[in-house]
Amino acid sequence: GNSVTQMEGPVTLSEEAFLTINCTYTATGYPSLFWYVQYPGEGLQLLLKATKADDKGSNKGFEATYRKETTSFHLEKGSVQVSDSAVYFCALRVSDQFYFGTGTSLTVIP
Amino acid sequence: GAVVSQHPSWVICKSGTSVKIECRSLDFQATTMFWYRQFPKQSLMLMATSNEGSKATYEQGVEKDKFLINHASLTLSTLTVTSAHPEDSSFYICSARVAGASSYNEQFFGPGTRLTVL
Lengths: 110, 118
What we know:
The structure holds two protein chains of two kinds.
Chain A: E1 3-6, E2 11-14, E3 19-21, E4 23-26, E5 32-38, E6 44-50, E7 56-59, E8 62-65, E9 75-77, E10 86-94, E11 97-100, E12 104-109
Parallel strand pairs in A: 2-12
Antiparallel strand pairs in A: 1-4, 3-9, 5-6, 5-10, 7-8, 8-9, 10-11, 10-12
Chain B: E1 4-7, E2 10-13, E3 19-25, E4 30-38, E5 44-51, E6 57-58, E7 67-73, E8 76-81, E9 90-98, E10 107-109, E11 113-117
Parallel strand pairs in B: 2-11
Antiparallel strand pairs in B: 1-3, 3-8, 4-5, 4-9, 5-6, 7-8, 9-10, 9-11
């Protein structure tokens, strides 16, 4: 079946720290991989995506590489800011359907 | 970019009443819209897939008579929670798939509707 496993939170970091949120997946077929961000009280916003193996998605200083050999799509950012505090969801899409991880809450403190 | 809106953004209702939530694609046509439910601190769970002009396809375990979905136009889908109960309190999010081969599978998410049933 199709599923996404991402590291449990919550994660608390100091401003300018390095961020890694792990995400692994199982999928039938050839999935596309996504990271979505959800700010408090808001819906999901697409952060970045990768559609095939070895693709790197990047946006706003965040990046993730589609690793087929390890079935992973870890999210990284070199220097987090307070404004990055949110819940981050890893997701895969097979055909028309999304499968989401349980989300990782990130809090960045000044 | 493609924008999806939802209305209302939050609603409080009494147990036993029905609530309608609208999902609109503002600047594109969406032949398919999806409805998700998100419980506190949990992930999104797909409830149903709504195709314009036809009946919605519900995921296993979702009561189609309780969660009525209508997709009457290429820019509007509605979810009606009938005879709502406190356990229906949740965050409901829709997404819309952009029509057209060049943007196949692109989906954009609405901001969500928070339903609280007293």
